[in-house]
Amino acid sequence: MREDFTTAWNACTEYIKSNINPQSFKTWFEPIKAVKLDGNVLTIQVPNKFFYEWLEENYIDLLKNGLKIALGENGRLEYQFMMENHREVGKMSKEKNDDNFQKGFSTDEIKNPFVIPGIKRVKFNPQLNKNYTFENYIEGDCNRLARSAGKAIADNPGGTAFNPLVIYGDVGLGKTHLAQAIGNEVLRKFEKKNILYVSTEKFTNQLIQSIKSNAVSDFVNFYQLIDVLIVDDIQFLAGKTKTQEIFFNIFNHLHQSGKQIILTSDRAPKDMESMEDRLISRFKWGLTADLQIPDYETRLAILEAKMNKEGIDLPGDVTEFISFNIKNNIRELEGVLIQLIAQASLNQRKIDLMLAKEVIQSFVNQLNKEITVENIKQLVAEHFQVPIEKLGGKTRKRSIVIARQLSMYLAKNLTNKSLKNIGNNFGGRDHSTVIYSCKAVQDLMDTDIIFKDTVAELEKKVQLSLS
Ligand SMILES: Nc1ncnc2c1ncn2[C@@H]1O[C@H](COP(=O)(O)OP(=O)(O)OP(=O)(O)O)[C@@H](O)[C@H]1O
C-alpha cells in the first residue's frame, strides 16, 4: 500500500495539475516530494528556499485548494528544503549562521512552519546591528537632511521619493549607523518586511561564489525577494563590471516593484569612478544626502550620549577637550572614550585633562603644540562665520572689524607674540593698531555682557585647542 503522504500529495497535485499549464506544473510541482504526513500536517520537500518563496508568491491558492481536497479543511502544509542539490552553494561561506544567502540555501532541513491558511513568509535574518537606532543617532546640522529622509523612509519604505537613498560622507561619520537605523526602524514597524543589510564586499563575494557554483539566478532571485535592501560602501563596486551588471538588474527589479533601496558610499554618485553611467544615473533617482563633519556642540552631544550608554561620567573639561580636538571622525571620538576608560581602570588612573591629552595624542598627530595667531584667527572666523582672509584685509564692515579686533585681543593675551608680530599677521598692521584694537575690545566687554561671554567662550575654545 502506498504511503499516506504520497496519496495525500497525489490528490493535491491532481487538482493543481488540472488548474495550471503543463510547463508550470513540470517546473514547480514535479520536483516536489512528499515526505511525511503527521495527522493533518503534510510535509513536502522542495529544492531550495527560493522555490518555496516562489510557490508561496504564485501558487498559494492552488496549494490551499489542493490541500483541502486531499486533507479536508484543516489540512496544513510544512516545508523542508532538500540538502543534496545545494552542497555547492552551501560552501559559499565558511562562517556559520552568518549569512542569509548561505542559510537559505544550505541549511540542512530548515523547517518552515508553513501553515495554510494564514501563511507566514519566511523571514531572513536582516543582518542588522540592533545598537544602531535613530534614538542614539544624535541629530545635528551635519546630518539633518539624511536623518530626516531616513525617518520618512522608515515610516513608508519604498513609498517616498527617496528611493534610492544614497548616504555619503567621509570615514566614521555615521553612514552605516544611519542606514542600519532605518533598517531597524522598518523592522520594528513592519514586522513582515524582509530587510537585508549587506556590505558591498559580501555582496561581491556571494556573487563570485554563486558564479562558481552555477547559481547566479538563485542569487539574483534571493535579492529580488527583499523589501528593504541596504548596501554599504557601494564605492567598492568600482571596476567590478560583472557585479555592477548583476546589481543593476537587482536594483531595477526592486525599484520597479516599489521596494526600498538604501546605499552608502564614501563619495557622491557623481564622483564615483569606474562605475557604469547607467548605475550612477539610477543612484541619482532618489535622494543623495551627505553627512558632514559634526560641529563642536554635536560632537559633545554624541560623546555625552556614548557616556550615558556606558554608564560613565567624565569631568566637563575632559569631555569638552575631547570634543574639541577630535573633529573629523566619530569613531575616533568613541575610541578616545574607550581608551580613557581602559587606561583609568587598567592603570588605576584618574580621568582628568592630563590623561585625556595623553590618550588623544595617540589618536591625533597634529594636535596644536602651542597657540598660534593662525589658530585664533581660524576659531574667531569660524565663530563669526566670516572668511578668515578678511581678518587680514581692509574691510570696515562691522562684523569683520569686531572679529579682527577680537582676534588681535586674544592673540595679545594668549600668545607671547609681540605687538609687531601680531600686527603682521593681520595684513601688516602696525603695533598701534593692535593696541587700539585691544582697547576697543576691552571697552565693548565692559558695556556688553553678551560680547563678554563670547570672548570668554572663545578664550576657552582657544585654550582647549592646546595639547
Ligand atoms: N550622529 C551620531 N550619533 C551617534 N553616534 C554616531 C553618530 N554618527 C556616527 N556615530 C557613531 O560613530 C561610529 C562610526 O559610525 P559608522 O560606522 O556608521 O561610520 P561610517 O560613516 O559608516 O564609517 P566608514 O566610512 O568607516 O564605513 C559608530 O559607532 C556610530 O555609532
What are the key terms here?
four-stranded mixed β-sheet; GMP Synthetase, Chain A, domain 3; 467 residues; lipid binding; single chain; Helicase, Ruva Protein, domain 3; DNA replication origin binding; five-stranded parallel β-sheet; Rossmann fold; elongated; AAA+_ATPase; ATP-binding; Chromosomal replication initiator protein DnaA; 4 domains; binds adenosine-5'-triphosphate; alpha/beta
Describe what you observe in this structure.
With 467 residues, the protein is of the alpha/beta class. It has four domains: 4-112, DnaA, N-terminal domain (GMP Synthetase, Chain A, domain 3, 2-Layer Sandwich); 144-291, Rossmann fold (3-Layer(aba) Sandwich); 296-363, Helicase, Ruva Protein, domain 3, CATH 1.10.8.60; 373-464, Chromosomal Replication Initiator Protein Dnaa, Chain: A. Helix content is 53%, strand content 10%. The chain contains 21 helices and nine strands. The protein has helices at 4-17, 22-28, 49-58, 60-71, 87-90, 100-106, 144-155, 175-189, 200-212, 216-224, 241-256, 277-283, 296-310, 316-325, 330-346, 353-363, 373-384, 398-414, 419-424, 431-447, 449-464; strands at residues 33-38, 41-46, 76-81, 111-112, 165-169, 195-199, 228-232, 260-265, 287-291. The strands form two sheets. It has a five-stranded parallel β-sheet with strand order 6-7-8-5-9, with helices on both faces. The chain has a four-stranded mixed β-sheet with strand order 1-2-3-4. Strand 7, helix 11 and strand 8 (260-265) form a beta-alpha-beta unit. Helix 17 (373-384) packs antiparallel against helix 18. The longest helix is centred in the last third of the chain and has 17 residues, at 330-346. It starts with a helix and ends with a helix. Adenosine-5'-triphosphate (ATP) binds next to helix 8 and helix 15. Adenosine-5'-triphosphate binds at residues 136-138, 143, 169, 171-177, 266, 302, 330-331, 334.
